[in-house]
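User: Can you model how adenosine-5'-triphosphate sits in this protein?
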Amino acid sequence: MQKILEIKGLHTHFITDRGVVPAVDGIDLYIKQGEVLGVVGESGCGKSVTSLSIMGLIPQPPGKIVKGSILFKDEDLVQAKEKRMQKLRGNEISMIFQEPMTSLNPLLTIGDQISEAIKLHQGLSRKEATQLSIAMLKKVGIPRAEAIVNEHPHKLSGGMRQRVMIAMALSCEPQLLIADEPTTALDVTIQAQILELMKKLNKETGTAIMLITHDLGVVAEMCDRVAVMYSGKVVEEGSVADIYRNPQHPYTKGLIQSIPRMDVETEVLYAIPGNVPSPGSIKSGCRFAPRCEYVMDRCHVEMPHLTEKEKGHYSRCWLAQ
Ligand SMILES: Nc1ncnc2c1ncn2[C@@H]1O[C@H](COP(=O)(O)OP(=O)(O)OP(=O)(O)O)[C@@H](O)[C@H]1O
Ligand SMILES: [Mg+2]
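Assistant: Here's the modeled complex, given as structure tokens:
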């Protein structure tokens, strides 16, 4: 399968009063057509900054893509003009944001917002667009869709708003959907329903999905491949099966160990000791070294390369080399 998105050597930095924050610090990633790629890692490792970089939505200043390329079907989005990005956004590439309220317009009805996206991109009349909006709302499991189209976002619960976001994101039948923690704010049953829905749309329409989450359980359910991020870099990448069966990086091992299990009784859940370093605070060597139980002298001095352990399975750790 062809790559629909390929990120090469991406560096996205923020210039702040306290200096340069290298939030994304040399990331390589790809997504093939129709694939679901999971991106996991603890809070602050650069997941959202990566997705906003793809969408061309990094606030500048203080942010800036300082190096690298983001190829979407061979077009470099880093070089694309804002006008071109507007055309791609909500058309060929859609995004579901971490916080749904920020991306819904409080002044417009749900129907108007979805219709706007549809009309803009598919050239339909107002009436046709409303019909299609209702159909989309039904597809994402919203009851009373005919009434909901006339309501404003604040009347809806968090779970309903997130579904509206998903309906909007999918109404233009994007080739790539970026879903940034689409279900974190929702309760467990709604979470499961929304993930199920995304999976179904992936299967039915072949939309490639980049699913950002800190939940490895969700990745196991949803994804074909997974990239594990740590402090602005990818530290491990491979098929979901390879990574769960044979994790290479001590950080990935720790993440897998912290998944709650139903089949064994444990008093306390395992958590990786220590915290994610703030971007740029570790000047040399492997950024996980201060928290790693297998740390060697070399790790504090030299940053390991991403190396292939088995076919398509990469790890950035001296132990794997
Ligand atoms: N506008 C900004 N100005 C300065 N620093 C920023 C800005 N936006 C993000 N950062 C920094 O970039 C780093 C990566 O942030 P990002 O939001 O990508 O993390 P994340 O992996 O999405 O975390 P979470 O799981 O909490 O959503 C963080 O250290 C954050 O403080
Ligand atoms: Mg985030």
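A couple of observations from the model: The mean pLDDT is 89. The pocket of adenosine-5'-triphosphate (ligand 1) is lined by residues 14, 16, 21, 23, 41, 43-49, 59, 62-63, 98, 214, 278-279 (CB under 6 Å).
User: Helpful, thanks.
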